[in-house]
Amino acid sequence: MNLLKRFIMTLSVLCAPPLIGQTDPTATHSGTNSPTPVISAARLTGTINLDGKLDEPAWASAAPVTSFTQTDPTEGAPASEKTEVRVLVGPDALYIGAKLYESDPKSIRRRLSRRDESVDGDVFAVTLDSRHDHLTGYYFRVTAGGAIRDAVAGGTEGLDLSWDAVWDAAVFTDPTGWSVEIRIPFSQLPYNRGDRVWGIQFERYRWDKQELDLFAFTPKKEVGGVARYGHLIGLGELPPPSRVELTPYVSTRAEYLQVPSGNPFRDGNDYFASIGADLKYRLTSSMTVSATVNPDFGQVEVDPAVVNLTAFETFFPEKRPFFVEGRELFRFGDIRTFNSYGSPTYFFSRRIGRQPQRDVSGANVVFLDVPQQSTIAAAAKLTGKTRSGWSTGILDAVTTRETAQFTDPSGARLRAEVEPLSNYFVGRFRREMREANTVVGGLLTAVNRDLHDPALRGLLRSSAYVGGLDLNHSWQNRAWAFDASFAQSRINGLASVISATQQSSAHYFQRPDAKSFRLDPNRTSLSGYAGQVALTKTGGLHWGGNLAYQVTSPGVEVNDLGFQSNADRRAVSTDLHYQENKPGRFLRNWVIGAFTNQAWNHDGDIVFNNYASLAQGTFNNFAGFFVRSDFSGEGFDDRLTRGGPVARQPQSIATLLELFSDRRKPYSAQLSLYRNWDVEGQHSRSMEIEVAVQPRPGVRFSFDPQLQKGHSVAQYLTASSDALATRTYGKRYVFATLDQTTLVLETRADWTFTPKASLQIYLQPLISSGNYPNFKELRAPRTFDFDVYGRDVGTVSKTGSVYTIDPDGNAATPNSIQLDDPNFNFRSLRGNAVLRWEYRPGSALFFVWQQQRVGSEPFGDFDFSRDFRGLVRQHPDNVFTIKATYYLAY
Question: What does residue 540 show for φ and ψ, rounded to 5 degrees?
Answer without folding.
Answer: 135, 155
